[in-house]
Amino acid sequence: MRIPFYVALVVAIAVGGGGASVWFALNAIDGLDTLTVGAWTAYPESGTPQVDPYGRARIARDGELPLGRAEGLYFLAERDSSGQALRRQCRYRLEGGVPVARFWTLYATDRTGHAAPRPQPPAAGLHSRQVLRRADNSFDIAVGRAPEPGNWLAVTGTGDMVMVLTLYDTPVANGADARDIALPAIYRTGCDA
């Protein structure tokens, strides 16, 4: 009776430990090809054959269709520039500019990647051709529930939020050094009760 118990225990530990390590590798590890610029993170290899095995598994699990190097690169921000998690019930200001790109988009999602709920009729996101800019080509964008003058990205609801900035046809996708990339800073300006 002892031997079957030990065999069952070893099998349970092996299966449980293997499952836990797979979960950890797919959810807790950023990846081997991570590019971090301030609060923004990108995975430049995700749309190429050189993607690491964990990245390939995440892409398959999530059903993503990542951009190839010639197409562009997307950056994700889960935290503001001070390190606090982005929340939909808070207000933020994005300040700065983006690297050279033919076109870019900015929108908010929840942690699962679904577009964050927003009021109608404002658009679900902003793009480079509709953003008001300063003389030096930089911009500021208000993100929150209440309308604000200038550039405003509308979101509603509560809970965590992820900002997605996608650069299309950009030289950044071809292995630029993080020190050479400037992305907008994200500042929390307040939160609703």
Structure commentary:
By secondary structure, this protein is of the alpha+beta class. It is built from two helices and ten strands. Helices cover about 20% and strands about 25% of the residues. The longest helix is centred in the first third of the chain and has 26 residues, at about 1-25. The chain is globular, with a radius of gyration of 20 Å.
Query: What Rg is obtained from the alpha carbons, in whole angstroms?
Result: 20 Å
Provide the low-confidence segments as ranges: none
**Largest β sheet strand count, sense and barrel closure:** 6 strands, antiparallel
- The total strand number stands at 10
Structural class: alpha+beta
Q: Could you give the order of the helices and strands?
A: HEEHEEEEEEEE
The best one-word shape is: globular
Beta-strand content: 25-35%
Distance between the termini: 60 Å
The number of helical runs is 2
What helical percentage do the residues reach? 10-25%
Sequence of strands across the biggest β-sheet: 1-2-3-9-5-6
The overall pLDDT, averaged over residues, is 82
